[in-house]
Amino acid sequence: MLLLRAMNISVSSDATALGRVAAEQFVELAQAAILARGRFTVALSGGGTPRRMYESLSEPSLRHRVDWSRVEVFWGDERGVPPDHPDSNFRMASEALLDRVPIPRQRIHRIRAEIADRAAAARDYQTEIARAFEVNEAGPPPSFDLALLGMGADGHTASLFPGGESLREGRRWAVYVEAPQRPPPSRVTLTVPILNRAREIRLLVAGADKSATFRAVLQGPHEPARMPVQLIKPENGRMIWLVDEAAASGLERPVAARAAR
Questions:
Q1: b vs e for 116-150, b when ≥16 Cβ sit within 10 Å of the residue's Cβ?
Q2: Which of 36, 94, 159, 185 registers the highest number of CB atoms within 10 A of its CB?
Q3: What are the tens digits of pLDDT across the range 195-242?
Q4: Which residues fall within 8 angstroms of residue 234, CB to CB, at 6 or more apart?
Q5: What is the tens place of the pLDDT at every residue in 89-99?
Q6: Using CB atoms within 10 A of its CB, is residue 19 exposed (0-12), middle (13-18) or buried (19+)?
Q7: Measured between alpha carbons, how far apart are the two ends of the chain, in Å?
């Protein structure tokens, strides 16, 4: 694993190794949060790379290092499908992790994006988050201990897509969106204001198909309307990119060398 410190990039050999690194960091952050605040609040991500992370976490060597009775699980986004649908982020996380660890069911806060009124589903999720954090849902968003995110080849993260109105959202914590050219198109997603309040953010990116986008996001112009992931900048927390060598292969060598020193 190579760490490019100035750019907060951790480069693993491949997607499997990346998943293991992400799982180890999850454990360390959970332990620290539980010690400091009595619980660990995490917003999970969908996708193949996070799945590898969840599968690593469910292995005995890591699973037993987390006090799951003190973990509160949320989601960064969800597709407009029932929770048992193959496209459901909730189903994926359940199969890969949550059904394999002793986490109390009342500490799992899924997005009910399957209901017909998805704008109401977004409002309900904001209410659910506020209840879990014991804060006013009309006030500033709370801070997750960890927000896990991915990045699409088009530069989207969570379900914040290029050119979408959700990119300009400054007040609501969760909104309903229509995903361009992606079935199922209807989604509910957390917004930039609450994601950027997280104490820790990990952005997981794997695969050569992401390398050009990764380079453009880090070394190209700041164009968040085209590359929404550029909006992810924690207010008072820390963000680390966890990537594999294939995704990092497009980075310009001079920049990478400067970052490594």
A1: eebeebbbbbbebbbebbeeebeeebbbbbbbbbb
A2: 159
A3: 999 999 999 999 999 999 999 999 999 999 999 999 999 999 999 999
A4: 196, 197, 198, 199, 200, 201
A5: 999 999 999 99
A6: buried
A7: 15
Residues 6+ apart with CB under 8 A from 40: 29, 30, 33, 34, 66, 70, 71, 72, 145, 146
Can you tell me the distance from the alpha carbon of 160 to that of 189, in angstroms, rounded to the nearest whole number?
7
CA distance 112 to 95: 18
Question: What is the pLDDT, as a whole number, of residue 183?
Answer: 81
| Count of beta carbons in the 10 Å neighbourhood of residue 248 | 24
> Can you give the pTM of this predicted structure?
0.93
The 10s digit of each residue's pLDDT in 28-80 is 999 999 999 999 999 999 988 999 999 999 999 999 999 999 999 999 999 99
The predicted pLDDT at position 256 comes to 40
Give the length of the chain.
261
The CA distance from 66 to 64, in Å, is 6
Question: Using DSSP, how many helices (H) and how many strands (E) does the chain show?
Answer: 9, 10
The matching CATH number, chosen from 3.40.50.720, 3.40.50.10070, 3.10.150.10, 3.40.50.1360, for 2-260 is 3.40.50.1360
Yes or no: say if 149 and 204 are a contact pair by the CB < 8 Å rule: yes
